Amino acid sequence: MLVLSDFELHRPTTVADAARLRAELGDAAALYAGGTELLLAMKLGVLDYEHLIDLKRIDELRGIERRDGAVRIGAAVTHRELEHDSDVARALPALAALERNVANVRVRAVGTLAGNLAFGEPHADPPALLTALDAYVELAGTGGRREVSMEEFIVGPYETALAEDELIEAIVVPIPGEDVRATYLKFQVLERPAVGVAAVARIRDGSFVGAPAVVVGAVDERPVRVPADVLDGVVCNDESALDDVEEAARDAVDPVDDLSGSADYKRHLTGVLVRRALTALAEGGDS
Hints:
Blueprint: E1 8-10, H1 15-25, E2 29-32, H2 38-43, E3 51-54, E4 64-67, E5 70-74, H3 79-84, H4 86-91, H5 93-99, H6 105-110, H7 113-119, H8 126-132, E6 136-141, E7 144-149, H9 150-153, E8 154-156, E9 159-160, E10 167-174, E11 180-187, E12 195-204, E13 207-217, E14 224-226, H10 239-252, H11 263-282
């Protein structure tokens, strides 16, 4: 039976108090919201903390709202809330579709998007799509607030741009224009995705307008952006151009052999999923 080691639980009621505790307690403490990743790692003995800082009682971290052409998602919002939120469904249908397929309903009911990002798990769904959508995180610490793009937030496996006294306050996702389509496809045989591909593009009259954003997640240490300039201005079903992007995707990633498959297999899957994602955009995508 998995058992947690002893720890002291702190329950701040403001972001400022949470940041102060994080700064004071340092490496002996971890932030805790849903806890789906953290508590399992602690039970397995992979992580050990003397203090947990519970963020669930901080009202500032709750809620989903449309603001200035974007959807702002509070750090305490669960995957389940995102899955069923009407504003997210209308403005960011690709994100709503992704959230419906995160882990299982038990995890989605308690786990948070912010917690998923803060943990820095390489085999996660949200970072690739959020990167392709030009999302950013709002961070709060004892020295004030700052914004970090999703592309810069995930630094490496289980490593983020969070400073020692900071926490995620919200995730902000710009709402795509009416002629912009987005989708996320993944392949998995185990609990976590082996490869995930996000694609976002502006399409008019059956052609790409500008280079699509194509981001591969789960297969590498962090999300990888695939060069797709060759698609700028070409019709969506241009097989030669799609061949080029498929090859660029395979070259862009650096997978390793594991229980999900060999490196060569995952490199092949990456190319296949990138092509399928771009084809899905031509057919309407999720938005």
